[in-house]
Amino acid sequence: xxxxxxxxxxxxxxxxxxxxxxxxxxxxxxxxxxxxxxxxxxxxxxxxxxxxxxxxxxxxxxxxxxxxxxxxxxxxxxxxxxxxxxxxxxxxxxxxxxxxxxxxxxxxxxxxxxxxxxxxxxxxxxxxxxxxxxxxxxxxxxxxxxxxxxxxxxxxxxxxxxxxxxxxxxxxxxxxxxxxxxxxxxxxxxxxxxxxxxxxxxxxxxxxxxxxxxxxxxxxxxxxxxxxxxxxxxxxxxxxxxxxxxxxxxxxxxxxxxxxxxxxxxxxxxxxxxxxxxxxxxxxxxxxxxxxxxxxxxxxxxxxxxxxxxxxxxxxxxxxxxxxxxxxxxxxxxxxxxxxxxxxxxxxxxxxxxxxxxxxxxxxxxxxxxxxxxxxxxxxxxxxxxxxxxxxxxxxxxxxxxxxxxxxxxxxxxxxxxxxxxxxxxxxxxxxxxxxxxxxxxxxxxxxxxxxxxxxxxxxxxxxxxxxxxxxxxxxxxxxxxxxxxxxxxxxxxxxxxxxx
Length: 501
Description:
By secondary structure, this protein is mostly helical. The chain has helices at residues 25-55, 60-80, 82-93, 95-113, 118-145, 152-183, 186-206, 224-250, 256-280, 289-309, 315-323, 341-362, 369-396, 404-432, 438-459, 463-466, 468-488, 490-497, and strands spanning 327-328, 331-332.
């Protein structure tokens, strides 16, 4: 039947049964993303706790600080991998193949984590990072392809629906993987995450017929000389990394923090290099140049947002484990279960926000993208203001613990902020990206998370000397100031965006 269907301008089959009012291909991408996020958030939910309990050596306080740094920098590496992943899709394989290969590599990574060996553990993390770099930006590009030629509000609604897939997987994962990891066996938890990723690959292959021609071909295939040039650069930098590591080992000065610091620096340097490369590319037209300048504003704001937000998997998880009363009757629920709260809230709020943006757009009252980002910063700052109060309350408590309502309040405020920034930013990236750079601009959007997490490799170390109350209050003030600054610059940013709304 598929061959007899007409196709729209995006190359997706038309005339098929809709998926909640959206193209049928959304169902394929929705389910694939849901299971991929199950695997990712399941692993992430127990990563910090596993590092502290089973991998790192030394006093407990030092292990917690180092685990938080490793967690932040690893997240940065995963999101940095989105840049070469976007290039591979744009210039070599097309998004369709990049997503498939990435999914297979991620599954292999999770099953490698299931091997009870420290070397296998870090190899598994490397595989997951590489596979996510191929899959994550390119599946979002394919979502954008489903809405080619359609209204901005409808595209935003589509990305908000897609965002629900992310959060359904993220909600279920800590409940299953977290429980198994904390209460049965860490490696069993990692193996279950691998099963989830395998289901994502199966779903993607079986549902591929609903995607038509979307993502089948690269936007601008690389020439043989370009391929050789990239291969030479990759070999050179890989060689430098290996030599530096071997030299560190030979001198007897090796410390895992050296790797953490190098990767943190890369998390800051890489986006700067990419933005410079895009601005210097002769293919960037005079019409697109101001849009990329505007995108820099959104990128920097997103960096600060994710730097604060993604501490939920490190410092906030440790706070949940040590300073929150988790007793229900006579049973203490796993600390990792807190990480299901945010996605659960997103599932409830996502359709509300999707309908809200469309309804406000119909009345010409929808807030601009710049205003949405400003609101997101004010909210994320407010969430850490609450954490500052929670830290003070725990310090003054006889038990050293606070009720679950403190963290629940933090996650609620963060979720509302997330709904103002994350799905909107995804949609914005597909709208503002020049056609020849779509995959790489999507990679840059995920690189904002990388840079924020890279900075976490350093900033989370301030928690121990400052204490919870002062540490969280400090970043609350910074975030609120950034939100007010973005709000003030809103008119200038909208002018640079041109016809993009």
